[in-house]
Amino acid sequence: MPQNGSQHRKDTRRIGSVAVGSYVLTFESVRFYGGWRCYWMICAVGNPDELLASGHAPTRDLAEMAAGNVVEKLTAGQTDARA
Q: What is the pTM assigned to this prediction?
């Protein structure tokens, strides 16, 4: 079944973006079965088109915690900064 843009916008809610040091964290909530799933993405401030890390969690709080852990690892210089 083809999806049009209006259906996608209805099923996705942009929560917001925040700058943390030299990184930008973006959060979105997407309809997932009967509920919502929160996705997070991390990019560098100087190169916002390059995705450094991403993931998802069942709640916004858990997504923020996971993204924060990855930012700490990136800031510490770890190249494998998975949550």
A: 0.76
